[in-house]
Amino acid sequence: MKYQHKQIAKSKLKSRTIKDKAIRVLVVLLSVVTISPIVLIIFKLIEKGYKQISFDFIMKTPPNSYEAMTALANGELIPGGIANGITGTLLMMVAAAAMAIPVGVVTGIYLYENPGKFMANLTRNISDILQGVPSIVLGLIAYIWVVKGITNGYSALAGSVSLAIMMLPMIVRSTEETLKMIPVTIKEAALALGVPYYKVILKVLIPTGFSGLLTGILLGISRVLGETAPLMLTALGSTIINLDITKPTSAVPLLIWEFYNDPNMVGLIWSSSLLLMAIVLSLNLISKQIAARTK
Amino acid sequence: MNDNIKQIKDPVLSIRNLSVSYDKGKYAVKDVSVDIKRNSVTAIMGPSGCGKSTLLRAINRMHELYENIETTGTLILNGKDITNMPTIQLRRMAGMVFQRPNPFPTMSIYDNVIAGYKLNGISLKRSEKDEIVERSLRDVTLWDEVKDTLYKKGTFLSGGQQQRLCIARALAFDPEVILLDEPTSALDPIATAKIEDLLVTLKENYTIILVTHNMSQAARISDYSLFMYMGELVEYGKTKDMFTKPRDRRTEEYLTGKFG
User: B1 pLDDT exceeds 60?
Assistant: First the structure.
């Protein structure tokens, strides 16, 4: 053995060291390539957008094109902010979550309780397919169902319906996965105390998996927060702060699109994007934190 | 076997012709009839897959959670047929402790002890709760160790303490029998010894039925032993008698380590 070892050392050690180093450099290089887009995006957003971020930016509605043009001509910052977008996004998120969370959690529980059953498998597969449906198609559906059918016009409700459909599969999956992680013994412990089944789910399983459910919900919200396409067909947009769910409503991503189309307002797209990005990133970080703390 | 059934007067539990099948025709427990003596420790022994856990879980009807499991036969617990008893009533009379300690991770030690009341929505006065918690924790000799940390999560305790907490949770209902499914198999020897001592003292007030694959444990703490093999009850009698002069060849072979 000793002899063999020596031989390897002599003849191959050098080439092995070189290979080892080359691979290491490659791994580091590819990792840098992977993380560079997000770093560059954040850097660009901050560089271009930070000037516009102020108290007014959160509290006021956007200026009209003329005001923006005047400010630009005088070399000043564009006045106003995106308060209508922020409130609209909040309104639609709350409404979408209120629709998607109960349905998604209950469906997730159903899938967990009936593994291998035909209906459960079908539901799971359909839910997976739903996740792949293009968001613009969901916007069209919400347009037909809600805009044409219920509110007789563009509305926040229509927007939140399309977003809720997008969130649903994520909540279903995360609920099922979370419940699966809870040891069966916890469930049996409750049943051995004579606790009825529905109470075991409500009072033992859901509290035990609560952080997992919350993580799934937060990720679902952050995923649809930046959706623009379905909102164009449903919520449409609004220049004023609107809290009536049956009326057209703005949203941060919708405003970014509007600003992009108005040469005088282009200055606002970066700060709006920066804000949106900050919200999405913090939601992601919060849900990661919750997930890590409970593992 | 039949002689033994008649020997015990006023049994806490009578099992008659109990069969449990998982798939149709495949029996995990076959036609078992046995009487369990009050205020004793009865050990159910046998090699893996002999149906000892299945028998234990039939006593508090845990099997009915699973659709494909069929149970036939009668069980009389404390003079009452359990077949159609409401589960809450049955499980208050027959507390269960599992192989691995399973305190509720979201609950404090205090809440874990009274979890049976809490989860079933049985409201108690504060003083009643305090009394139940203290009595149950004293019964399992855990009170002195945790009395200052009652509101901490039960999952912070050591494995042995967690298992005693789970026994306290079963005792909180003041049951007739306590069913233990290999309660020490996940514990170290010191924690195991504590639980064994505990079970011996608990038999003054409760009847204990213990599934164990550990023969020396059965010999140490049980008064009566059941030996099961391939779903059948092979031998039942006083532990002392069974370990010194087993009547069945299979029991003897198992006890001498020829299989198992």
Answer: no
Chain A residues whose beta carbon lies within 8 Å of the beta carbon of residue B209: none
Interface test with B, best of A186, A193, A294 (most B CBs within 10 A): A193
Residues B27, B233: Cα–Cα separation, whole Å: 13
Question: Which residue is it, tokens 């979370």?
Answer: A178
DSSP codes of every residue in A118-173 = HHHHHHHHHHHHHHHS-HHHHHHHHIIIIIITTSSS--HHHHHHHHHHHHHHHHHH
Q: What pLDDT sits at residue B64? A: 85
- With 90 as the cut, is the pLDDT of residue A288 above it? no
The listed range with the strongest mean pLDDT (A8-17, B61-70, B102-111, B245-254) is: B102-111
How many domains would you assign to chain B? 1
Domain count, chain A: 1
Q: Output the domain CATH number for residue A155.
A: 1.10.3720.10
| Strand order from edge to edge, sheet including B70-77 | B27-36, B13-21, B70-77, B80-81
A195 min Cα distance to partner chain B (Å): 5
What's this model's pTM, rounded to 2 decimal places?
Answer: 0.81
Q: Evaluate whether residue B141 is within a structural domain.
A: yes
* Number of other residues whose CB lies within 10 A of the CB of residue A124: 19
* Cβ separation B102–A189 shorter than 8 A: yes
3-state secondary structure of B45: strand
Q: What is the pLDDT averaged over residues A207-228?
A: 92
| Closest partner CB to B116 (pick from A186, A188, A194) | A194
The strand order across the sheet containing B224-229 reads B94-97, B177-181, B207-211, B41-45, B224-229, B232-238
Q: Read off the amino acid at residue B132.
A: I
| Cα(B154)–Cα(A34) distance, integer angstroms | 43
Whether B141 and B194 have beta carbons less than 8 Å apart is answered as: yes
Smallest Cβ–Cβ distance between B91 and the set A193, A199, A204 belongs to: A193
- Do A247 and A159 form a contact (C-beta atoms < 8 A)? no
Mutation site, B59, B67, B104, B113, interface A, largest A CB count within 10 A: B104
> B73 in a domain, yes or no?
no
Residue B19 lies in a domain: no
Structure tokens that stand for B124 in this block: 């108690």
> Using H for helix, E for strand and C for coil, what is the string for B203-232?
CCCCEEEEECCCHHHHHHHCCEEEEEECCE
Gyration radius from chain A CA atoms: 26
